[in-house]
Design a protein that fits this description.
heterodimer; A: 419 residues; alpha/beta; TIM Barrel; 2 domains; two-stranded parallel sheet; 16 helices; 10 strands; 52% helix; B: 209 residues; Methyltransferase, Methionine Synthase (B12-binding Domains), Chain A, domain 1; Rossmann fold; 5-stranded parallel beta sheet; 59% helix; 11% strand
Chain lengths: 419, 209
């Protein structure tokens, strides 16, 4: 595809606008980030099931939404469908329920939290995390990988030629079946991933930058979401606090290295960090300070050190924790907020981090054009003052009304121009 | 020693709680007195949660401590006395929805408020609700959901209870996320609670307390 000079100019202009806001300067106008989620599917008249299982259809739906609404940043399509449904289906992923499978075709995916690691298993996990992950954790999460539970301990692989006979184990039917499934799931994941990489290049050429190409989790959330479950992790705060903290410290380097590698491959420095259990109401400020904040803070600082731009999504409310965010260096973090009081956030952390989010989905779904314009105006007037602000919704736009989305985007483009 | 037990529960000191409870039982304290001390401590914690002084880890931990005491006490007083409560509540998150944080808080608060609560978990089909209502004969049925698309599942669950001829034997309350009076009317429930405290007041009102 030939890239016109206008398109190249648009890309440069959009990146300057976005980087200006992230660096806390005042760009030419308020940038617009559209966290599409599954919106492009409905907008193009396809079901969520098709979005999860038909790569070409899903990508052209995204191209249509991006082309029609022309955001300064768009939410990468791969994240909305967690790479793609077939990968999870092949692996029999027990942590996900998908549209058109366990769920009706027009319902977004659901995450099934559980206790995939018991409290008694902390020691095994801390001693040899890779062995625990492969032989115990994966067989619990993925039905098709149960055979990996029959593998000999991974340490036995250091025995050189003396241990070569162990490879005979790989022919045991359950292990062979698990490895075969892994290879098939890997091929499927590669097909979708290659599709996204090609898509992002194509959008770049058309002048549209992607929000992010990498994702990571706060250490507490990884343990709470993926290993122990919320109940388990919260009991650990009382019953084995030292192990809970030790596991977070052990996981931190991995949580940094993975997005650094992804960012190197994509060239996109923005790292999405959806936060879950650190919000107001889940735990007390004291518990936050002891169990959540240190791991999250160290993650953000390490990503900044690696030259990346952490973009935490503060889901829920963080009004009681805003002061902590002042510990980050200025102009290096782009925070996305859900229901925190952004007007207060502008006062407390406006000189530290770029602020984005808050435009309520409830308005974009069921409001009137007047209500949408009124709320957007207030955001631009107060939070957008002096720059350091990116217009964005408080959560993914899955069920947003296309007409109201148009009103919101047009109004921001017009009214959000800095004098 | 009673104060010591309450303080230890409120302070979430699990080992100490179990030591004191064992000592009290061995020393001949009436098990019912221990249950009543536990209930008092639960009410303090529940009130503290509403006031923003206690949080989810504390609710979960104290719930865990209390179920361990209940296990200790039960053999000494029999199932009947241990469950002598204000009324029976059957509760669950309706079909298609797997969110349970809000429901679990309501379970905790109803339990602390003196109800015998039976939790069916999440993604509970209308038929599963009907089957358990027939077996358990609860006074109150609680339907929870977070997702707006689950209103339809709530309506179908109430309808299934009607069709099974059980509707006039139970009171039905709904709650969770975006549930309001509008939704209550739509699904055909008897009441809704905006939060866990409202659910307890509603239940107590229905039981004439």
């Amino acid at each position: 595809m030939a890239v016109s000079s206008t398109q190249e100019k648009s890309y440069t202009e959009r990146m300057q606008r976005i980087n200006g806001a992230i660096e806390l300067r005042q760009p030419d106008r308020v940038p617009i980030f559209l966290a599409f989620g599954l919106f492009p599917a409905r907008y193009a008249g396809m079901t969520y099931e098709e979005a999860f299982f038909n790569l070409d259809g899903w990508l052209s739906a995204n191209q249509k939404a991006i082309g029609d609404f022309e955001p300064d940043l768009y939410f990468q399509p791969g994240a909305a469908v967690i790479t793609g449904g077939a990968v999870h289906e092949t692996l029999q992923n027990r942590q996900l329920r998908l549209p058109g499978r366990e769920l009706p075709p027009d319902v977004s995916f659901q995450f099934v939290e559980g206790e995939y690691m018991t409290a008694e298993e902390y020691d095994a996990f801390l001693t040899d995390p890779s062995d625990f992950a492969i032989r115990t954790y994966l067989p619990r999460v993925f039905g098709a990988l149960e055979g990996l539970g029959y593998l000999p301990t991974l340490k036995s692989m250091v025995m050189g030629y003396a241990g070569a006979a162990l490879s005979a184990m790989l022919s045991l039917p359950p292990i062979a079946a698990a490895l075969d499934t892994l290879a098939r799931a890997g091929e499927e994941a590669m097909r979708w991933t290659a599709g996204y990489m090609e898509f992002e290049k194509r959008m770049d050429a058309l002048g549209f930058p992607a929000f992010s190409s990498s994702v990571t989790l706060a250490p507490f959330d990884l343990i709470s979401d993926m290993l122990r479950g919320m109940r388990g992790a919260m009991l650990d705060m009382y019953r084995c606090p030292d192990k809970l903290i030790a596991a977070q410290e052990m996981l931190l380097p991995t949580l940094v290295d993975a997005p650094v590698l992804q960012a190197q491959m994509s060239g996109n420095p923005r790292v999405f960090i959806p936060l879950h259990r650190g919000a107001d109401g889940f735990m007390s400020v004291e518990q936050f300070e002891r169990f959540y904040w240190p791991g999250f803070r160290d993650l953000v600082l390490a990503l900044i050190d690696a030259g990346l731009t952490p973009c935490p999504f503060f889901e829920g409310t963080y009004d009681q924790r805003l002061q902590y965010l002042r510990q980050f260096p200025p102009g290096k973090v782009a925070g996305i907020f859900d229901r925190s009081d952004l007007f207060k956030a502008k006062e407390i952390i406006g000189d530290v981090m770029c602020i984005s989010g808050d435009m309520p989905l409830s308005l974009l779904q069921t409001g009137t054009p007047e209500q949408v314009r009124e709320y957007a105006k207030k955001l631009i007037d107060v939070v957008g003052k002096g720059g350091g602000f990116i217009m964005n919704s408080n959560t993914v736009l899955d069920e947003a009304d296309p007409g109201l989305l148009r009103v919101w985007v047009d109004f921001t483009r017009e009214y959000g121009v800095y004098a | 020693m009673g104060n010591g037990l309450s303080d230890a529960i409120i302070g979430m000191r699990e080992d100490e709680v179990l030591q004191i409870a064992t000592r009290m039982l061995d020393g001949g304290t009436d098990p019912m007195e221990i249950i009543s001390l536990c209930r008092g401590a639960m009410e303090v914690i529940g009130g503290g949660f509403e006031a923003g002084e206690y949080f989810l880890p504390d609710l979960i931990m104290s719930g865990e401590i209390l179920s361990r005491i209940a296990e200790m006490v039960k053999p000494r007083i029999g199932e009947e006395a241990a469950t002598l409560k204000l009324g029976k509540v059957l509760i669950g998150t309706v079909a298609g929805d797997i969110h349970d944080i809000g429901k679990n808080i309501v379970v905790f608060m109803l339990d602390a408020g003196g109800f015998d609560v039976h939790d069916l978990g999440v993604d509970v089909s209308p038929q599963a609700f009907v089957d358990r209502i027939s077996e358990l004969e609860p006074d109150i049925v609680g339907l929870s959901c977070l997702l707006t698309i689950a209103y339809e599942a709530m309506r179908k669950t109430v309808q299934a209870i009607v069709d099974a001829g059980l509707r006039d034997k139970v009171r039905i309350m709904v709650g969770g996320g975006t549930v309001d009076e509008q939704v209550r009317g739509y699904v055909g429930a008897d009441g809704f609670g905006a939060d866990a405290v409202a659910a307890v007041s509603l239940a107590k009102g229905w039981m004439g307390r």
